[in-house]
Queue: 4 jobs
Job 1
Amino acid sequence: MIRLENIEKLYRTDTIETIALDRISLNIEKGEFLSVMGPSGCGKSTLLNIMGLLDAPTKGEVKIDQQTLTHLSDKQLARFRNQKIGFIFQSFHLINDLRVLDNAELPLLYRNITSKERIRLATEALEKVGLSNRIKHFPSQLSGGQKQRVAIARAIAGNPEIILADEPTGNLDSAMGNEIMDILLQLNRAEKATIVMVTHDETMAKKTHRLVRLFDGSQVQ
């Protein structure tokens, strides 16, 4: 589902060059649940952003579902992301002035579907994460675990084949973290979603199919 070939990412200023990723090659199969671990600053989030087409590699090639995406325009990439990929962030990134249902519906605004269909898909996504009784609430009325459930619902409302999760349990206590992890495992099993999760938590990583470790931008396992 995701293929990275000799990915390099360099950040340059007038005086310094920083290697964020160094010759990363990785194949992630359809329906696989992969976790990525490593110390802070090792390139985990950069790798996830390149997989999610939010950033472009300095060198190398990215293929998703056997499609080479290096030469697509920004508009084409945005359309592809919206159809294929769901994102879950550590800090939730919910809009406080919008109700839970409206937050879950946001990615669907960029699709050519009716308002009725958007509401149906967002409601179904919230039901999957156990929040059907909170659709009229605002984020300020939710716990951290509930906010992350809304973020997951937003990520899956459009039925993406790929879910990219950046520290999805990082801001939660262990009980809430386990609940969120159970939801991701269920999405992987029942929906056959391909999931890549960045985490610092070895316990969470061991629940996934495979673990990749990064150190100073290089893959060490």
Note: The first helix runs from residue 44 to 51.
Job 2
Amino acid sequence: MSQEILIAGGGIGGLVAALSLKAAGFAPRVFEQVREPRPLGVGINLLPHAVRELTELGLAEMLAGNAVATRELLYVSAHGQVIWREDRGLAAGYRWPQYSIHRGVLQMKLLEAARARGIPVETGRRVAGFAQDAEGVTARFEQGGEARGAALIGADGIHSRIRAHFAPGEGPPCWNGAILWRATTVAAPYLTGASMVQAGHHDQKFVCYPIRHLPDGRVLTNWIAEMKVDPAQGFAREDWNREVDRARFLSHYEGWNWGWLDVPGLIRGAEQVFEYPMVDRDPLPRWTDGRVTLLGDAAHPMYPIGSNGASQAILDARQLALQLARAKGDVPAGLAAYEAERRPPTAKLTLANRALGPDVILEEVHRRAPHGFTDLYAVISREELETTAAEYKRLAGFDPALLNARESWSVGA
């Protein structure tokens, strides 16, 4: 009989874990606190290492039909001057594309795939605590009742109840004073029609990329405006994902129309704008206790720099299934091996993102040439730009040569 694995959280990481465990011969059960899952959120990026894993789960056609294959990435100064441009996905030599997709659409498609493959997904059930013994683990629900399985996976996000077991008294997430305003806007395509742009500097940034091509030739463009404010003002939990008036920040971007990209036009064109504090948490010294472990934002919430949050949760999910399968029934050993594979690199990535990750080149150019430049390479060398980009790819696990060559993480049932 298949070992039953309990998963707290029906987000992207939890659902990919369920699909991976099912493929590896386990019997996953997903418990999602939301009673009626809906396609919420805005855009996210799936880097080639994550797309590889979803492809090996049989989801390539779903991705291609619901996402935009990213063609290039540009880093641009606050004056609209291109600092760095690189190909992405297939154009960069990867065997798998890079995709930009609506987070809610991806989650709903993963939920649909899980149910189609016979995975129970129980909604309106939030795991509040657990107890374990030598034979298994019992999850207790906030709404009452229990469930028993061979393991419990905490994929319940940045406010994870299960993480609290590993970090009692941790308190709220760490906030550095940056506020994110996120939205989508239907607009004309820019550049290649599949270009991702990171513009500005540490104190004021703008990120945008298309997430859907529309029949009339326009694109649904996801954008994020980011600004630093005084951290002393603090933020409250209710500030998460709340709709705000764009007048709060639009004036700071009025001059950011560079012909090829109209930033204030994108901001004005959005139907709704949502505000988030930019937060993370300190890396934990451990994720695993016997038959219980963490995954995704519950394990390693990180700043949305380098387009890595969802991708890292997908990598977690795939390694979890692989290591549990290799453990051949020894669940604690499998979870310990999973943590050994995933905790060190995600801890490094969390700290690298705090240090601006690949976005450090925006800050360096702004620091050295705050009023713009006439000769980029007099400000920053091509070698420095290339090294920054390459080192982040290696750190985050999507160096093209290494990714193309590494063995599959798929496990047959």
Note: The CA atoms of residues 194 and 399 lie 21 Å apart.
Job 3
Amino acid sequence: MSGTLIAALGLAAATGPVAVSPFSAVGSFDAPPVITWQRALPGPRVPAATHTELGTPVISGGLIYVGSAGDDALLVLDRSDGRLVHRLAAGGPVQSAAVVRDGHVWFSDAAGGTYCYREKDGVLLWKHLGSAPILSSPMVTDGRVLVAALDNVVTALNVDTGEFLWRHSQRIERRLSGPALYGAPTPTPLVIDDQPVLLTGYADGTLVALTAATGEVLWQRRVGEGAYPDLIGQSIDLGDSVIVGGFSGPLVALEPITRAIRWRVDVGSANAPSLGDVDPSSGLPLLLHGGVDGKMRSIDARTGEERWTWDSSTQGALTQPVVTGAGLLVGSSSGGLYLVDPDHGQQTWEFDPGYVLAGVSARPAVDGRQAVVVTNAGRIISLVVPPTEPAWARGDADWQRVGGVDSVADQDER
């Protein structure tokens, strides 16, 4: 990316160690937020109505890690104002969430590469180049990095060196009719905690259990149905059952030992459900499912019974809901961002990005009182719940700056 383009976007390239601005969002995301800043992500102007940003942001300390459809890197931003701290170079756009922990940053890109950087200084420790795009997050577990590519191949790498360990290539049954679901991600493998087993999903709707050590196939079961049976969202392990859904449907609770379907709900899934409060009657958390039909449902994890349904009235696929103190924070691929009461399914707040081609396809990130969301128009937006005490009592000049006319919200136009 040229220096001219960086300057035009209001993003300064790092020339050495960059100090992160002091910023505090300590507290709970327990009330409707306000915009504190927004910026255009790097890359060309949006050329068509099909533009989508899938780079889910990750907040870690004073930084935000996020990809962009128009830049071959994982961007590292200052969470106080969205300023670019540095770029972690990749071979293609990063269109999934990074994994940031234990002093390392792991991520994959749309060119098929997987990378491990050192968190403190952005030094590349290793990279592995695959043959197909990767649009899902890596799974880092038990000394391995597991990645799932669009060619229905799951690869295990050594977490310290990136050395190849094993690969599973799934044979996909050809569709009997209709087009393929273009560019749909292969979901991140799920590690079942009480046994060394991975659950992986594929484009023909098949769920496959692999041994974590060698990638050997233990069993497989067809789950997805309809025109687009693709398993896109990651499965969820509830102990005695696994929740998994196809893009056209259904959403099911499957018993891993017997492979029996305990219940099914005929809704489509683009993302994994979230877990809500535990239902006293079943001892299981309620499932909060964002459907491809623009509706969010609260589902009893024991029976599959729908407790309530909220309709975004957008007909766009919903993101995975984020459980916050203010309610369920969820985006729509053809709408905005919403807060919904988890008890009754009533909408309590809405944020309309207000830009052509806006819409939210990537799950928002929440840390403390701050939420960060990326829109399909290529903008990253910070929303913060105002503190309960007045600014003068805290001596917080920064809050007055970002909340008023000096905010960077109006400095960048894509």
Note: Residues 57 and 66 are 5 Å apart (CA to CA).
Job 4
Amino acid sequence: MKPKILITDKIHPVAIKEATAFAEVEEFYGHSPEEIVEKIPGYEALIVRSGTRVTRGLIEASDLKIIGRAGVGLDNIDLKATEEKGIRVVNSPEASTIAVAELVIGSMITLFRRIHHADRSMREGKWERDRFIGNELYGKILGIVGFGRIGKEVGIRARAFGMDILVHDPNITAEDAKEFNAEYAELDELLRRSDIVTLHIPLTEDTRNLIDEREIGLMKNSAVILNIARGGIINESVLYNALKENRINGAVLDVFEKEPPGENPLKDLENVVLLPHLGASTNEAQINAGTVVVEKIRNFFRED
């Protein structure tokens, strides 16, 4: 008997094709939580992205053996309830590593060379070469907070631009950093020395508002900060005031405390680049997010 898989958030057709090779697959998009709870009995596997809330109620109503999250975070899944019921949970954090790392580098260049403003000026019929004098990445100090998969890939690419790398991550040592031609630093030192700070850590109770008034105060007036990780790591109201008062030079945000951010005052500032959570938004990452989690589900049923 083939296992039955329910998919409640859209994944790439390539991944669906791979799933149908070993399972009975039903796509069930755009339905309410109540409809999903009603639908879930009889399915052994569930594949979601960020849209479906896998609640205790859904879990208790199910016959699930495994849940696959096509993507990085698991914050939309009640992990305590899955553990109590003995349901395996898998995801595909490795799928978007390159996409996020490349977006970080692209965002740094955009901010430093003011590409977004120059593009807008050209569309308004202007030719303002003198207005858009920018800065180079070469020789700048990049501070990477969180040196896991994505942090390491950012560091590798930044070295190719001739940047010096500082890293902070409680899970690595100074020797680990040296292997990637980087220098280990405590967070305060990293904030003081860096020209660019980029965040690559999960949102937890310990990291919520990690970058707050005190931390912003440690940064150079000429420094910029990027958050292409999780909303809530930077205190957005503190960041807004710092940018408005030119206490730091700029920021890039791909994630927000509330998504979509609505009438966020950051939208009114010229020294910030705002993106609609594009970190994993490449064709390659979208394919990988689905196929990696499908492969993990396939392997689970082979072992079962």
Note: The chain has twelve helices and twelve strands.
